[in-house]
Predict the 3D structure of the following.
Amino acid sequence: MPSIGAYEADGSIYWIPGYTFAHSSTPVPPNGTTTAKPGCGLMWLGGYKASRHHLYVGTSAPAVDEADLDDAEFRGMFEGARNTYGFKKPLPSGTKVFWRVDAERDGAVVKGPVWQFTVK
């Protein structure tokens, strides 16, 4: 993979500095932004000592908030330090995306907050 500064292009781990809560935090794109690029991906700071994270993505805040592993909003399990997700194709301008990342540690799941962004 080609290097892009401190990171590898298409890498699955993106280092985000900051305090580590029990829940996931520090979303990228930032929560509430209205200038996300169509080709953006998702990144987050994982929960403290979490062994995996569960990602949920959708266009309805209540659906993402209430989603579980069997729902259409579920996008996958991210093992260990993996904290990046890429959309399969660019998002249309004006799309509002809601997403949540739950942290799993020792079999217990800490539900994350619902974040949102709008594609420019």
About this structure: The CA atoms of residues 12 and 75 lie 15 Å apart. Helices lie at 61-66.
